[in-house]
Amino acid sequence: MRVRDLNKVELVKQKAIELLVSDGFEGFTMNKLAKACKLSVATLYIYYEDKDDLILKIGIEEVQRMVAIMLEDFDPELPFAEGLRQQWKNRAKCMIENPLSAQMIEQLRNSTYQDKMFENFKKIFGLPLGKFMQNAVDRGEINAIPLEVYWCVAFAPLYSLIRFHNDGQSLAGSAFVLTDKMIWDTFELVLKALKKINQYGNGL
Length: 204
Description:
Blueprint: H1 6-27, H2 30-37, H3 41-47, H4 51-70, H5 80-97, H6 99-109, H7 114-117, H8 121-138, H9 147-154, H10 156-167, H11 180-194
Helix pairs in contact: 1-2, 1-6, 4-6, 5-10
DNA-binding region: 29-48
Keywords: DNA-binding
Domain HTH tetR-type: 6-66
């Protein structure tokens, strides 16, 4: 059995992500990938059984890598405001520094690869975030709401801003660059929307 060349493996991975984003799953072929990597098609089959095996393995590796970034310095036991801030910090870093991987993962989420790709996702990512939300509810920091509603309020604004940033274009079509001030001003609005209001009308 031939030894895997780690430099070639990384090259194949990066070129595969680029092609999957630009050409989609239907347009992606092993021949195109080999040409982009300046390798023979036979070399690709040293590392992967076929196209589906390649997409799944690279996809799973990228999901695990991105999740690790998103969970850096995050603890489900953190107070709600502090924990949510850490999540925003991690997610912004992850999505801005890895735009192609983020796009590929979103494509996989809406593909026939979804079930195999995300079967372990709930354990390594969903469980700590679910515990964080439940802890905040138990401490009376936020109201109990469906997870889907929580996600839309907590993270959709950040993802929309990052999408504008990665596209380099605002809704009006002008140039757009996301700044730290924009991120944290938006965060404060989200925090205000989620935090439970006490009897005096103040956030807890």
